[in-house]
Design brief:
Elements: H1 3-17, E1 27-36, E2 48-49, E3 54-58, H2 61-65, E4 71-74, E5 80-86, E6 91-97, E7 100-101, E8 103-104, E9 107-112, H3 116-119, E10 134-136, E11 157-159, E12 166-171
Parallel strand pairs: 1-12
Antiparallel strand pairs: 1-2, 1-5, 3-4, 3-6, 6-7, 6-11, 8-9, 9-10
Length: about 170
Amino acid sequence: MRFLPIALLCFCFFFLGCREDENDSPKIALEITVVDASSSTSAKPQVLPSANATVYVYLSEEEARNQRPAYTGKTNNKGVLAISLPVKDRYFFTAENGNARSSKNGYAIMGIFESEDGLGYAAQQTPPAQLGGIILMDYNGDGLVNDLDKNRFRISSGFTLESVNKLTLYISE
């Protein structure tokens, strides 16, 4: 009978004590700013900080597909959330505040058209590119935003963070 407690103790030490502690793994400090493009118009292209927006961070495509974020946080009154994440090859993000989301009809929102110059470089999209309008992500890079670019995970995008420690997520109604 003395063997069982010793075996259990060795098992716990070996399998639990030797695992890499996630708290000891390398981290990246990240500042996420969430801005709302809902009030942007051609007369006044603008984004406003989105206070109290919820940000979801997925550490893998599987987490994103299953809508199981590894981290959830709220932005402060300036629309900023500071977090520390384990270093990974790729991260997936989404944000929301009320009815405003970081995707529109299944397309990821990448920003707004702030100048006439930007309109000429944009992928063809519906609604058409216009000053103050939202920029939709052309996932496959073919110059057209269409059904092939719809995001099946309803996330902003998969991002690789190397030396970048700041990220802006755009939301819109």
